């Protein structure tokens, strides 16, 4: 028991010093100077999600109205594109290129090249938005 009392940890004051205090003050000053940038930084993930939704809706409307493709297959394929983007957002860049290339080739074979280019656009926007949200 006497040995336990003699063995005390040496606590150094430097272990408890704050290191991010200056950074947080600079960040707060930066927010006061530019409120638009502060709004973007606070809501970045929501704005990027809104961008993906806008691109997906534009692809759906263009496919239905301009290309005369039925509604159900268009919506199903766009949702699948978003799901593939979520599942593959951590893979290397060459694999994303391969996925887009396969989509465009499949569209050329089926005679729906413009539709598959729109789907590839949804895929790329989804991948980029997930990349920027993680940063």
What do you see in this structure?
- By secondary structure, this protein is mainly α.
- It folds into three domains: 1-33; 35-66; 69-134, no CATH class.
- Helix content is 79%, strand content 0%.
- It has helices spanning 2-6, 21-33, 35-42, 44-66, 71-87, 93-110, 113-134.
- The longest helix is centred in the middle third of the chain and has 23 residues, at 44-66.
- The chain is elongated.
- The chain crosses the membrane at residues 46-67, 74-95, 101-130.
- Keywords: Membrane, Transmembrane, Transmembrane helix.
Q: What integer value in Å does the Rg equal? A: 25 Å
Label the overall shape. elongated
Biggest sheet character: none
Compressed to H and E, one letter per element, the order equals: HHHHHHH
The helix fraction, in percent, is: over 70%
Number of strands: 0
Low-confidence stretches: none
Beta strand %? under 5%
Q: Kindly name the structural category.
A: mainly alpha
Into how many domains do the coordinates divide?
A: 3
Distance between the termini: 51 Å
The residue-averaged pLDDT reads 83
How are the secondary structure elements laid out?
Layout: H1 2-6, H2 21-33, H3 35-42, H4 44-66, H5 71-87, H6 93-110, H7 113-134
Helix pairs in contact: 2-3, 4-5, 4-7, 5-7, 6-7
Keywords: Membrane, Transmembrane, Transmembrane helix
Transmembrane segments: 46-67, 74-95, 101-130
């Amino acid at each position: 028991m006497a040995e336990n009392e003699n063995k005390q940890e040496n606590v150094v004051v430097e272990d408890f010093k704050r290191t991010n205090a200056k950074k947080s003050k600079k960040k707060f000053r930066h927010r006061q100077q530019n409120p638009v940038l502060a709004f973007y930084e606070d809501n970045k993930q929501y704005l990027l999600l809104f961008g993906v939704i806008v691109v997906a809706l534009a692809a759906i409307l263009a496919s239905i109205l301009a290309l005369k493709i039925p509604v159900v297959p268009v919506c199903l394929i766009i949702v699948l594109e978003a799901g593939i983007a979520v599942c593959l957002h951590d893979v290397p860049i060459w694999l994303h290129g391969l996925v887009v290339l396969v989509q465009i080739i499949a569209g050329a074979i089926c005679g729906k090249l413009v539709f598959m280019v729109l789907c590839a656009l949804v895929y790329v926007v989804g991948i980029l938005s997930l990349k920027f949200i993680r940063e």
